[in-house]
Protein 1
Amino acid sequence: MTVKQWHGGELRWDHLGGEWTVLTPGRGAAPADPCPFCPGPGEDTPPETWRLPGEENGTWRVRAVPNRYPLSDRHEVIIESPRHDWDLANGTDEEVADVLSAWQERHRALRHGAEQVVVFRSRGSDAGMSLSHPHSQVVGLPVLSAAARRELATMREHYDRSGRPFAAEVLAGELSSGERIVHANGPAVAFVPFAPSAPFEVRVVSARHRADFAAVSPGELAGVARVLRLVLAALRDELDDPSYNLVLHTTPVGLEHVPYLSWSLHIRPKLATPAGLELATGIPVVTITPEHAAKSLRDRIP
Ligand SMILES: [Zn+2]
């Protein structure tokens, strides 16, 4: 039995499923009243690790703090805005770019001693959001998940065989057919995957195909921010503000410069609870075609 001790809990290896399980007995739930992330007298967070300062002295646009209920010894919360009712879908392009640059900054900062640093964001209680103030999370893990390992092997094999990044071929195919493209802005492109794992799943990628999201230049990041904002606004309008999970797929620690990996953002709306076949087999059942989903979202974008 393989066990790794970490931060008050443990990781146990599931031999049959081929994946780690995180055990965190007694992990608390965040208090929500008053909001601990809103600036002001009710503000209550551990000491900040990083901030993007605002225009006025002492103010901030985005800040990072350690998670009060951590899953690992490297677990931070990125408070995306001082405004409680702000959201990626209704922010400005610059505000969304600020959040993405915070992801870059904290991804780099939490790498030391980790195998993998993950960045994710949940919106809506169906997606597991416990505090309604807009925030995302960055977690450094002492292991590489089986999913990340599989993805890595696929990309490496493809590159060895063809000399091209896997994601470059996928994107070239999507751009030439066009039927699953949601929006494109310079190198940043959003599309619905050919075989999605959830209805209205969308990926945002860059034609520059870099392994490390943290190394994306500010100019390119601005284009990504715009596409992300437009896609999230289209999802909000099309699906009446759905719960969703947004996950950054980027390089495992130590592979920042390999030519075969490409970062991507995965947006998965949470529209239905998995049942029946999905639970029995792990095979997703998706009730809307990706081509139709892409067209509906495309039509929502001016
Ligand atoms: Zn708040």
Note: The chain has one domain: 1-302.
Protein 2
Amino acid sequence: MKENFFDRSIDELAGILGDLDQTPYRLDQVLNWAYVRTVPDFSGMTNLSADLREKLSDILDLDPLTLVDRKRSRDGIEKLLLSLGDGELLETVLIQEKGYMTQCLSTQAGCGMGCTFCESARDGLSRDLTRGEILAQVATASRVLGNRRRLRNLVFMGMGEPLKNLDEVVPSLEIILDSRGFDFSPRRVTVSTCGWVPGIKRLSDEGLGVNLAISLNAGDDGTRSEIMPVNRKYPIKNLIKAAREYPLSNRQRITFEYVLIDGLNDSDDDAMKVAGLLKGIPCKVNLIPCNETSADYMPSPEARSTAFQKVLLDSGILATVRSSRGSEIGAACGQLRASSK
Ligand code: SF4
């Protein structure tokens, strides 16, 4: 079976090419075709000899993910359901905003973190994705869009907890940021976590400069542990400490995601607690009325969301209410995969 091209580091590709063809610039040419032009097979690499193209296509696969389903919502959200080599499914979402695209990447098939408001948690974790499976999502989306440059932002917010799969996520980030790879600015890349504290520390140490988003969702340990089991192991105090220690450059902020669930975490009192926790952290809060998934949760009414936001703003914390887009195609994480299963 052929190997996923994107599982190979740039140094490993240099080694493979060196064994097959000694011509200078071959590596740069292949990287350009794969990461900038995102061709789906080696036959498209027209400045390589036919012999080399054939040899490469015998061992490496530039298109390892099969597009199984594609849905587009009226409000500009496109969701791709992709099949992996072993039949596992993953999903990636494209979000259109003012002429540019943000892609939401998955890092695991399923998720073992058990957040009660999330569809990805329903069947637990199937397996981690490899670095190549993470990177191939970017290549596939670039092909669907016709051009890699149409992708402006990448967010690691799809299925799975990225910080539980850092051995694969970090090498994928290195290629995403490498000027010979997908060449994204670190400012355009965000890694999101449910609060896996040792992972935040390791990501800090990697010094990649990417943005950090934390899914907070409660202002006290009782409520947070009820909806996010990770909180029993790493309570809010530890999480906020790790967030305070995350290295930020000028004007960079940590994003706190807060899913508003009617009657559960959306009172003014909850907002006051959140404001107290985040005091002094360069941050912004995204308030997201929850999707109606299979759990027994309802989104907070608009007036409640606005009142929650006002408490934060009055406390000097930047806060926006984000609309829950793409609901008719199941664009919340895990929904398309869950319905397909
Ligand atoms: S919200 Fe994220 S971490 Fe929690 S279960 Fe869903 S995918 Fe996993």
Note: The domain at 3-61 is CATH 1.10.150.530 (DNA polymerase; domain 1).
